[in-house]
Amino acid sequence: MEAQATTATTWIIDPSHSEVQFKVKHLMVSTVTGLFSQYEGKLEMVGDDFDDAKITFSADIASISTGNEQRDGHLKSAEFFDAEQFPQLTFTSTKFTKTGDDTYDLTGDLTLHGVTKSVTLKAEYGGQMQDFYGQTKAGFEVTGVIKRKEFGLTWDGVTEAGGVVVSDDVRLVMNIQVTKQA
Questions:
Q1: pTM (2 decimals)?
Q2: Rounded mean pLDDT of the chain?
Q3: d(C-alpha 61, C-alpha 88), whole Å
Q4: How far apart, in whole angstroms, are the C-alpha atoms of residue 104 and residue 143?
Q5: Domains of the chain, earliest start first
Q6: What angle do CA 100, 101, 106 make, to 5 degrees?
């Protein structure tokens, strides 16, 4: 008896129902939140389970917004992200492993500022639902922490009192809705 071929299902990020944020401590006493407004990604899976899905994602560095034009300009400059030389952040999964009923470990190669490192993030599956147009949607919240200096984002400001201006830890918080493709 021949084995039946299983077809891959592709899901595409719905940017109008998703958000990609990062959070960084400022002066080590408060948190500044930024976001990327231009990004895309897809998830490809075989069968009915997201376990071991293949995920790709990219964000345009020039789309960074923290709600402060001067700070955004600094972040896009050569002192930080250098949007001109490194216009995109990319992520390609190497493992997507189910760890609980609705939880996964998402490991992959993150490329930022010309540096590629393996990172592991947490993903929480929010479920599936059909929208008003008959499209199947699924949701995930993806969180984790990266060290910005490991990616060559080494700018350091120090206050007159010797305080750190920007933390090395960057928290990632992404609420992603994907649409199943026919």
A1: 0.89
A2: 90
A3: 5
A4: 11
A5: 8-180 (2.40.128.110)
A6: 50
